[in-house]
Design a protein that fits this description.
Helix content is 71%, strand content 0%. With 288 residues, it is mainly alpha-helical.
Length: 288
């Protein structure tokens, strides 16, 4: 006499467990990442080489405008390393956040045909952004080594923490605006504006001391509460400062206060994005 197997709990169609479903569907995630790479470079001659060209052109333009014409290169030691370390990080955020916000609409035809954990679309854009980030990171490492990079273990650790902040933040914002874009297509324009503003509201092109001198005392903590600002400064601390004489100042309480604050804010954004996604994903097929 055979015993009946326990029944699986019923699951409401079209709903999943949010980001908790992602590790269980690693194979699907890999397929989506491969699809994104193939679609993006279909018919392209240079392919992944564009990962070098875009930041290279950005660096050249900003270096000429700010480094040479405005004189930042004269007042800062190894300003090219400072500039490029900020550019590669903000480029990762812009790509991961922007493509994550468009992921649901871009994959609308697939969402309407079959069910699979929809968070995979957003998570795959972060992985694609990481793939494009790696060539830029290699160029940055080479440049740092050429000018005498000598990081401590702490500085190597903060580089990893900076990337963790940006991954959590870009994934969380990608989920939030990915949901918003399903219902309000104007969200794409807001994402473009936020990505542009993020470059100038964080010390990618200029030094944080300029901000501290101009802002009133109560406003500077608000500036430092921006997780992107903290991540960029951590990258500067890990890559740029070891190439200088060691006298370059870092923002007050960067490691002891602002880094935990940035990690906390990024994690909260990710959790809120996941909750928002799980609440509304059942309406995606209808809206798309």
């Amino acid at each position: 006499m055979s015993t009946a197997s326990p029944l699986e709990p019923l699951v409401r169609p079209g709903h999943g467990r949010g980001l908790a479903d992602v590790p269980r569907h690693r194979y699907l995630l890999r397929l989506l990442v491969n699809k994104e790479i193939q679609v993006r470079y279909r018919g392209s001659i240079l392919g992944l080489v564009w990962s070098y060209i875009k930041p290279g052109v950005q660096f050249l333009v900003f270096y000429l405008a700010l480094g040479l014409f405005l004189g930042l290169n004269k007042n800062m030691e190894n300003y090219p390393v400072y500039l490029f370390s900020g550019i590669v990080l903000i480029n990762f955020f812009g790509e991961a956040f922007g493509n994550g916000a468009r992921a649901m609409v871009a994959n609308g035809a697939l969402i309407k045909k079959i069910y699979l954990p929809r968070e995979l679309f957003s998570v795959s854009t972060v992985w694609v952004a990481l793939i494009h980030f790696l060539p830029q990171l290699l160029v940055l490492l080479l440049a740092c080594l050429l000018v005498g990079w000598h990081p401590s273990l702490l500085q190597l650790a903060v580089i990893v923490v900076a990337m963790l902040i940006m991954v959590l933040l870009s994934a969380g914002l990608g989920l939030v605006f990915g949901v918003a874009n399903v219902f309000f297509r104007d969200s794409e324009n807001i994402v473009d504006l936020l990505t542009m503003v993020a470059t100038w509201l964080s010390p990618v092109l200029y030094v944080w001391t300029m901000v501290a001198q101009e802002l009133p005392g109560w406003a500077f903590p608000l500036y430092m509460a921006n997780p992107i600002t903290v991540a960029v400064e951590l990258f500067h601390y890990g890559f740029w400062q070891p190439t200088t004489s060691g006298t370059a100042p870092i923002p007050p309480h960067l490691l002891s206060l602002w880094t935990p604050v940035a990690l906390g804010i990024s994690l909260v954004v990710l959790v809120l994005g996941d909750l928002m996604f799980r609440r509304l994903e059942g309406r995606f097929a209808q809206e798309l």
